[in-house]
Each structure stands twice: as C-alpha cells, then as structure tokens.
TrEMBL record:
GO molecular function: proton-transporting ATP synthase activity, rotational mechanism
Gene3D superfamilies per record: F0F1 ATP synthase delta/epsilon subunit, N-terminal
Name of the molecule in the record: F0F1 ATP synthase subunit epsilon
Domain ATP synthase F1 complex delta/epsilon subunit N-terminal per the UniProt entry, residue ranges: 4-83
Topology of the protein relative to the lipid bilayer: Peripheral membrane protein
Organism, scientific name: Terrimesophilobacter mesophilus
Amino acid sequence: MALLNVSVVSADHEVWSGEARQIVAKTLIGEIGILAGHEPVLAILDVGEVRITLEDGKVVRARAEDGFLSVEHDMVTVVARAAELVHADSSTH
C-alpha cells in the first residue's frame, strides 16, 4: 500500500512528521480525507482536529488553527499558526 509523507508544523516548530496511510483534516468547507494518489489540493483549515492514520492503524491527533493543508505527489503539509499534538492512540481504528 502506498503511503503519504506527512508534516504538521506550527509557526515556531514541527509538531509531527512521518509516513501515514490517511489524513483527515477540518477545512472551512468540511472535513477532507487524503489517501495516497490524491490529486494536488490546497485547502484552508478551520479550527479543529487533524487525524493521521499510520500504516499500522494507530491514530495520531493534532489540533490546528489558522492555516492550510497542501497535497502534492503524496506529500501532505499542514501549516498552522497554532498546532499541537493532542495524543497518539495505541489502538487500531
């Protein structure tokens, strides 16, 4: 299965980076889900959760506000004025 290279950054530091099979983020027009092979997209983030599903099914959650999400060539970048890791879930989803 193809994976995404994901980076979540805030204004002053990297919050999380790594490989994932899926990312879901809240945008101004609703949630967006990204899988490998997704068309290029640029979306404005709404205040909310970014869920990153790892290859093993574990979920990393971050809170982000005032930023954007960019997808190109299986590279996903979430850039936010404020972002923080909420928690990494050890269970599968």
